[in-house]
Amino acid sequence: MTIQFERIGQALGARVTGIDLAQPLTLADHQALHQGLLEHQVLFFRDQLLTPAQQRNAAALFGDLHIHPIYPKIAEQPEILVLDTDLNDLRDNALWHSDVSFIQSPPLGSLLSARHVPPHGGDTLWASCSAAYEALSAPIRGLLDGLTAVHDLTLSFPLERFGNTPDALEKWDAARAANPPVTHPVIRVHPETGRKGLFVSEAFTTRINELEPGESTALLQMLFKQIARPEFAVRWQWRQGDLAFWDNRLTQHYACDDYRPQRRIMHRATILGDRPFGP
């Protein structure tokens, strides 16, 4: 089989055919997917119902894997976290965000596998933060290039939602202690392509360090609105067995919470990356 990429969005997104991710990837497969990820930012695969071990192995070819401090995991493969609406409070996923930006070296990317999908609803959108940045005016880009912002786990994992039982409180306290707030540049330079993109999110960014509180709030709200503009996004309608692989460094995503009380189960493998740097 020959790997092929079919672009499905103007700003980002491609559907990939000609590969079975349940099989060990060859060097050529790995290189093709790597280049496709850099070009398209998010890749979609149909009919790839991987076991947790197969998903872990595919993700591990691209780097070390993160173990989430709060969400439940597969017991035999703790690198695979479980996003299950019957088990988790997933309201933080219905916000634009990049995964785990609250650590010093946020993820390179993630592989998300659809295990159980509702009969309707439950789509996920991805936005290109580089396209959003490039559409800003030159004076605003110049201002942003020198700013830094704080990312905090507790913004999307607050005590009142994730510490409401003794066991949950113990886990939450440990997660907060191990993951204090961190500072990242507002504009991130992609370490491989050199492309710039917005690196703030409504899920984890609390303030811009160099600005007064009112200025910080106003500018962040403008940037959040910019990222969410539909012309910078692609929307994927899940089928069971679908898999998405995205570059977490210059994208954000939003999981539509429009299917309750139906159940939705996703498995995610998260690939650790490098420490962000600015212009």
UniProtKB/TrEMBL annotation:
Domain named TauD/TfdA-like: residues: 6-270
EC number, UniProt record: 1.14.11.17
Entry GO MF terms: metal ion binding; taurine dioxygenase activity
Gene Ontology CC: cytoplasm
Swiss-Prot/TrEMBL GO biological process terms: sulfur compound metabolic process
Alphabetical list of InterPro entries matching this protein: AtsK-like, TauD-like_sf, TauD/TfdA-like
Claim: Metal-binding is one of the keywords in the record: yes
Pfam family, one: TauD
Family: Belongs to the TfdA dioxygenase family.
NCBIfam families: PRK09553.1
Protein name as annotated: Taurine dioxygenase
Organism name: Pseudomonas fulva (strain 12-X)
